[in-house]
Amino acid sequence: MKTKNNIITFEDHLDREYGKIGTPSRDKYEQEFETFKLGVILQEMRKKQKMTQEQLAIKCGTTKTYISRIENDASDIRLSTLMRIIQEGLGGHLKLTVEV
Questions:
Q1: Burial profile 72-87: b = 16 or more Cβ within 10 angstroms, e = fewer
Q2: Handedness of CA 20, 31, 25, 12 (dihedral sign)
C-alpha cells in the first residue's frame, strides 16, 4: 500500500523483496530473521551483565568463537546449547512460543 508520498509499508516491502507470506523465499527470510534476533537478544543479555564473550563461554562450557558466531548470526544453535547458554551462562530462563 502506497501513501501520497510514495512510501510503502514494511509488509509491502517484504512482499516485494522476499515474496508473499508462505512462499519459499519469504519463509527463508523469516527464518533467518528469527535467527538474527536470537543472536541480538543473547548479545544484549550478555552486555547487560557486563560479560565478555569469553566469560560467557567459560560459564556455559563452550568457546568464545561459538558465542561470537551465534551473536553474529553465523551459526545454527541446538536447543540444548541455547538453554545452557541462557540458564548456566546468563542465569535466565528460556520461554518458547509456537505459532501455527
A1: eeeeebeeebbebbbe
A2: positive
State how far the Cα of 28 lies from the Cα of 20, in Å rounded to an integer: 12
CB of 90 within 8 A of CB of 46? Answer: yes
What angle, 0 to 180 degrees and rounded to 10, lies between the N-to-C axes of helices 64-71 and 24-48? Answer: 130
Q: Supply the pLDDT for residue 75.
A: 76
Distance separating alpha carbons of residues 20 and 11, to the nearest angstrom = 9
CATH 1.20.120.530, domain 10-89, yes or no: no
HSE of 52 in the Cβ direction (CA atoms, 13 Å)? 6
Q: Residue 46 in contact with residue 18, Cβ under 8 Å? A: no
Q: What is the pTM of this model?
A: 0.78
Average predicted confidence (pLDDT) for the chain: 91
Domain residue spans in the chain?
10-89
